[in-house]
Amino acid sequence: MIDDRSKKTILTLLPEVQRYFTAFLEEAQPIAEKEGLQYLAIQGCRTWDEQTRLYAQGRTAPGKKVTNSKPGSSYHNYGLAIDCGVFHGSVYLDVSEVKKANLFHTKMSKIAKLHNLRWGGDFHSIVDMPHFEYNTPLTIAQLRDMHEKGVPIHV
Question: DSSP secondary-structure letter at 62?
C-alpha cells in the first residue's frame, strides 16, 4: 500500500507514467517497512520556477548544489521523474544518515529498473541517489522543444 504523500507526488506526473512509479513504490515500500523504514516519493513534477530556485542553490543562493539541471533540463520539469526519501519515523535519513539512505536507494534501484525507471545513482555528471525517472527514449532537448512549441508531451 502506498502512502498518501507518495500518491499525491505520483499524481503530479504524466498520466501514462504514473503506473510505473506506482508499481515501483508498491514493491519498494514493503521492503522498507521490513527494515523499519519508510520509502516515500517526496518530489514529482517540478515547475520551471522551482527548477530555477534549485539550480541557484549553491551558486547564487545559499546552500549546497543539488542539481546541475537548469530550468527545462530536468525530467522533473516534464512530469517524468520523482525523488524518493528514506525515513525512520519522522527522521529524514537522506540528511541525517546519508550513508544508510544511499544504501537503501541503491537497493531500490534494482527494483526501479524492473519498472522501466532509470536511477540517478547511475548518473555521471551529478550522482542523484534519490532520483528515479521514466526510461523514455525522448531526450531533454526533444522534451524542451516540444514544450516550447506547445506540443503536449506524451511518452
Answer: S
